[in-house]
Task: structure prediction
Amino acid sequence: MHSGGQQITEPQAAPAASAAAPVTPAPAKGPEGWRIRTRADASGAVALLDAMARRGKLAGFEAGGGDGVFRVRDFGHPFESELVARAERVDGWTEFTLRRRLRPAMPWVFGLMLVATIWPGVWLTDSMLATYFGWYRGIETWWWYLPLTVPAAPWAMWSAIRKSCAAGDNEAAIVVGKIEAALGSSGERTREPEPGQATPR
Result:
């Protein structure tokens, strides 16, 4: 458009926002295990991951740790899980097998609390009902209280473990993706074999 010999141009649209930084894809979920292959030897790989953890990029990492070459702790809820890694040398590659498992302390504490609070609950409920309802005196509370609470305790325990395993698997896959990216994996992600099946290579 022209006005007084001057050309008026339309304002240019703002450039689109830059794409988000790529996120390392999580490996496919397997039954309690992932495999990562790298050309680095086990000690070098663990040292690299330890340095990564010291920079705050791999929370919960611990070199060694009993039955594995390293472990990653403190993820999952309501009960925490840990990843335990073992390593073996296969055809010039270091193959890490990572298994997720629940840390046992909190499930035990939760289970003991469920059992320990049942009978005190009988006393508390009996006292409360007898205090507020005069007609309730003389009724044995445990007759109806135990059938309601005892069967519910195993279900509560099972439900908490099931939720913890699901959350642990989801978060473990993200942790494994970080480890795989850090170690420069071959990209091979294999599921743990079922009993009687050959281990994939």
In short: Strands lie at 2-3, 6-7, 34-38, 61-63, 70-75, 81-90, 93-102. The CA atoms of residues 55 and 175 lie 15 Å apart. The first strand starts at residue 2 and ends at 3.
